[in-house]
Amino acid sequence: MTYSDNTLKMNRKENSEARRERVPPDRMERVIREILIDKVSVRETSRIYKISKSALQRAVKKAMQLLNAEKFKHEPNIGNRRIFTTEQKKHYANIC
């Protein structure tokens, strides 16, 4: 069974369209306070502010672990993962 190229095209977004923008920490903190203090739903807030629902849920979970939601600080983890510490790198470099 053969298909023409036109029938197999998949509707995929370009990489630039599929990526979400990073949410500034001050904006995320404001949104989290709105969810926790004003009791607005995560789903509704994610639609209003165009922030990923799962990202909001993770941030709300972290904020709820604090005793005071006012003290919540959003710190995005955008650094590269380090496998070895600098001491381990030096040690392994000397062995090889």
TrEMBL record:
Region: Disordered, residue numbers: 1-25
- Organismal lineage: Eukaryota, Metazoa, Ecdysozoa, Arthropoda, Hexapoda
Q: What is this protein called?
A: HTH psq-type domain-containing protein
Where does the HTH psq-type domain start and stop, copy by copy? Answer: 25-67
A Pfam family it matches: HTH_psq
Q: Where is the composition biased (Basic and acidic residues)?
A: 11-25
Query: Under the GO molecular function aspect, what terms does this record hold?
Result: DNA binding
